[in-house]
Design goal:
The protein is α/β, with parallel strands linked by helices and 501 residues long. It has ten helices and 22 strands. The chain folds into two domains: 150 residues, Immunoglobulin-like, CATH 2.60.40.1180; 332 residues, Alpha-Beta Barrel (TIM Barrel), CATH 3.20.20.80. The longest helix has 16 residues.
C-alpha cells in the first residue's frame, strides 16, 4: 500500500451556512470537499480505450505497408499518461472480411511499434463473426472459430487479450436486416454462444472470450445478465456491455443541451449505466472475475447527433461519465470511433491515394477528444480516485491521488450560465497549477472545427492541427495560497484540473 500524506482539501466559500450566493461580479459560490484520507478507489491500468471497426483499420491505423502517422500522434497524446496498455476493441461481427489480413497486419505493426514501452502501448480484443456462424436452421458452419484461428496466427503474441463473440446479439432480431430470424431469445443465444466457444477452444489459440457484448437496452435480455456471468465464467476473460447516453435512432432526437444534464450520465433505459452496474460487478466478483469493460460507448446512439455530440458539451459529459464508471469499479471504457459519417468520433481522417499506399489528412478532431485527454491526465502516475463532493449539482468534482502524493482535482461546471468562485483551503503546500478547458465564450455549443469556435486546454488547441500535435502556446496559470487558501474561478460551461503537488 502506498504511503499517504493525510490532509483535507476544502473547496469552500465564505457563504452563510454554505448557501448559494452571488458576488458583485455575477459569480456564485460553491463548496467542494476532497478527502484523501478516505478509502481510495483503484482505477485499472488501461482504463481508457478506443472501440473501432476492423474494416476501418485502413482509415485509422494504416495498411500493411504504411502507418497513419496522425493516428499515431493522437494515440500518443493519450498514452503518454497511461498506467497500462490502451485497450482497443476491434469490431468484426458481420463485417466485410476481404481486407482482414491487411487490417491485422496494420494492427500488428502498431502493437510492435509501441511494444518497447508496455505501459504506454496498445493491446486488442478482436471480434469474430457470430452473426454468420449459424445458418437459418441453426447449423454451425465454424466461421467464428476459423476467424479466431486466423487472428491468433496473424497477431503478435500477447497482443490479443480476448475474442469478442458477436456484437450486440440482443438486438439481432430487431436489426435491419435482421441477423437472426425465427426464434431468437436469450436461451437460443446462450446455446449458440456455448457452441462457438467450444469451436474456438478446440483451435487451441490460448486466447479467452469477451462476451456477452449486449447493447443492454432490452429488459428481456438484460434480466439474464447475471445468469450469463454465473454460467459462462470459466471461459470469460472480459465481461462486456455497451452504453450510450442518448438516442438518435429511428428519428429520435435529444435536446440541444442534453449532455449537460444528469440524465445523460444515468439514463434509465440503459442497463449498463454507472448507477446500475454494482450488481453485475458483485456477481462477477462472486464468480472470481473482475474484468468488466464498457466495450462500446459514446454520447448518442446511431452515430451521434449533430449539434450535440460534436459540440463542447461532449467533452464535459465524457469526463463526468468516465469517472462515474471508475468510481463504480468498472475496469475500463472504450469510446466508439467511426471514420464513416458520425458526430461522436474523437477524430476522423481523409484517406487519400490508392491502397495500400495511402496518405491521411485530418478531417476533424472533435471536442470529446479533449475530454479523453483530461481523463487520462487525471489518472496518470497510478492515480486513485479519492472522495470529492460538491454542494452544487451543476459543479461536478472528482479527485485523484497519485503515486507521488500529488492531488489532482477536476471541476466540471455544467451550468450553462453560472460562474463559480471557489477557494481551496490547503495548508502546508505550495503553488497550485491549473489546466483550464474552455470553449469560445464558455459556450457548450462550440465545435472547435468551425471558423468561429475554438477550444483550448492549458492554452493550446487542436484547431488547425494537420499532424495531431497541439497548436498554440501553453498557458498554465498558477495560484499562490494566501494563508493556506487558493482562490479559483471556474466559468460556466468549462472545466479545470487543479494540480497540488
Amino acid at each position: 500500500m502506498k504511503q499517504r500524506i493525510v490532509f483535507r482539501i476544502s473547496l469552500a466559500v465564505v457563504a452563510l451556512c454554505g448557501l448559494l450566493t452571488s458576488s458583485a461580479q455575477g459569480q456564485s459560490t460553491a463548496s467542494v470537499v476532497v478527502n484523501p484520507n478516505a478509502v481510495a478507489t483503484t482505477v485499472s491500468p488501461g482504463f481508457l480505450g478506443l472501440s473501432m471497426v476492423l474494416s476501418e483499420t485502413q482509415h485509422f491505423v494504416g495498411t500493411q505497408t504504411v502507418q497513419n502517422p496522425i493516428f499515431g500522434q493522437l494515440l500518443t497524446n493519450l498514452t503518454q499518461y497511461q498506467n497500462g496498455r490502451l485497450q482497443i476493441r476491434e469490431l468484426r461481427d458481420e463485417q466485410d472480411t476481404n481486407q482482414t489480413a491487411n487490417n491485422l497486419s496494420a494492427l500488428s505493426t502498431l502493437f510492435n511499434d509501441v511494444s518497447t514501452a508496455p505501459s504506454k502501448g496498445v493491446s486488442y480484443f478482436v471480434g469474430v463473426d457470430f452473426a454468420d456462424n449459424f445458418d437459418s436452421s441453426g447449423t454451425d458452419n465454424g466461421t467464428a472459430a476459423t476467424q479466431a484461428s486466423e487472428i491468433a496466427a496473424a497477431m503478435p503474441a500477447g497482443s490479443v487479450l480476448s475474442f469478442e463473440i458477436g456484437n450486440e446479439p440482443d438486438l439481432y432480431a430487431s436489426s435491419s436486416p435482421a441477423r437472426r430470424t425465427g426464434t431468437w431469445n436469450y436461451t437460443v443465444f446462450k446455446q449458440q454462444y456455448e457452441q462457438v466457444v467450444t469451436d474456438i477452444e478446440a483451435k487451441n489459440t490460448g486466447i479467452p472470450m469477451d462476451a456477452p457484448v449486449f447493447a443492454a437496452v432490452s429488459n428481456s435480455w438484460a434480466s439474464n445478465i447475471d445468469d450469463f456471468i454465473t454460467s459462462e465464467t470459466a471461459h470469460l476473460a472480459l465481461f462486456d456491455l455497451h452504453y450510450y447516453a442518448g438516442n438518435h435512432c429511428n428519428g429520435h432526437s435529444e435536446t440541444a443541451d442534453y449532455l449537460m444534464t444528469d440524465t445523460a450520465i444515468n439514463p434509465s433505459t440503459e442497463y449498463a449505466r454507472p448507477n446500475n452496474v454494482a450488481g453485475y460487478l458483485s456477481t462477477l466478483h462472486s464468480a472470481g472475475r473482475s474484468n468488466f469493460r464498457i466495450g462500446e460507448m459514446n454520447s448518442i446512439a446511431c452515430q451521434g447527433q449533430s449539434g450535440v455530440s460534436d459540440r463542447f458539451q461532449s467533452a464535459l459529459w465524457f469526463m463526468d461519465q468516465a469517472f462515474n464508471y471508475a468510481a463504480e469499479g468498472v475496469s475500463g471504457i472504450n469510446v466508439f470511433t467511426l471514420n464513416a459519417t458520425s458526430y461522436y468520433s474523437p477524430f476522423q481522417f481523409n484517406t487519400n491515394g490508392a491502397a495500400p499506399n495511402y496518405t491521411w489528412t485530418v478531417k476533424q478532431i472533435n471536442p470529446i477528444y479533449y475530454g479523453m485527454i483530461m481523463t487520462a491526465m487525471m489518472l496518470q502516475n497510478s492515480g486513485e480516485l479519492i472522495s470529492a463532493t460538491s454542494n452544487q449539482s451543476s459543479l461536478k468534482a472528482w479527485a485523484t491521488l497519485d503515486a507521488s502524493n500529488t492531488v489532482r482535482t477536476l471541476l466540471i461546471n455544467k451550468s450553462e450560465s453560472t460562474d463559480y468562485s471557489v477557494s481551496l483551503n490547503l495548508s502546508g503546500r505550495g503553488t497550485a497549477t491549473l489546466w483550464q478547458l474552455t470553449a469560445s465564450n464558455n459556450d457548450y455549443t462550440a465545435s472547435d472545427y468551425t471558423s468561429g469556435d475554438q477550444i483550448t486546454l492549458g492554452g493550446r488547441t487542436f484547431k488547425g492541427s494537420t499532424d495531431g500535435t497541439w497548436q498554440g502556446t501553453q498557458s498554465l496559470p498558477t495560484v499562490v495560497p494566501n494563508n493556506g487558501v487558493y482562490t479559483i474561478t471556474i466559468p460556466h460551461s468549462s472545466a479545470v484540473i487543479i494540480k497540488v503537488p
